[in-house]
Amino acid sequence: MSKTFTRFASAISRWTGHPVVFIGCCTIVVLWAFSGPVFGFSDTWQLVINTGTTIITFLMVFLIQNTQNRDNNAIHAKLDELIRVSECDNYFIGIENLPQEELELLLKELDALAPQLRSSTAPHKVRHPSARVSGHPKMSASLSSNGAAKRPQPRRAPRAAKS
User: Fold this and answer.
1) Does residue 77 sit in helix, strand or coil?
2) Helix (H, G, I), strand (E, B) or coil at 149
3) Contact 147, 133 (CB under 8 A)
């Protein structure tokens, strides 16, 4: 069921994002507007467009949310994999699951460090905020006496042997 809905939602999202569909919707609205005098701008005439657009909007909200959730999850998985195989701090893998308060604190501290990091020739020597946010043990243990973080060795995926 989930797989079928995913395929359906993806197909509808691609289709509705097409310029031709937008032009078609605009054409329907223009035709409806021009048909007003024919129907005497009656309540039924107004109800037709209101009901149609409400139903379509209601259904599209769920399709768009499904598509955004899948895209968001895919981006997180890709970023987590890039972090995992690089020399980046593995602490950042999965931070989207932190409580909102911790995430906001981390973002605040990173924003405060941004000017220093941009101008630094050795950004790894700037004290990393993840050591303070949730008592991250790896980072807390790796802080030197002056507060600068020693880079932990990143976890790397095993590389396939060349043949």
Assistant:
1) helix
2) strand
3) no
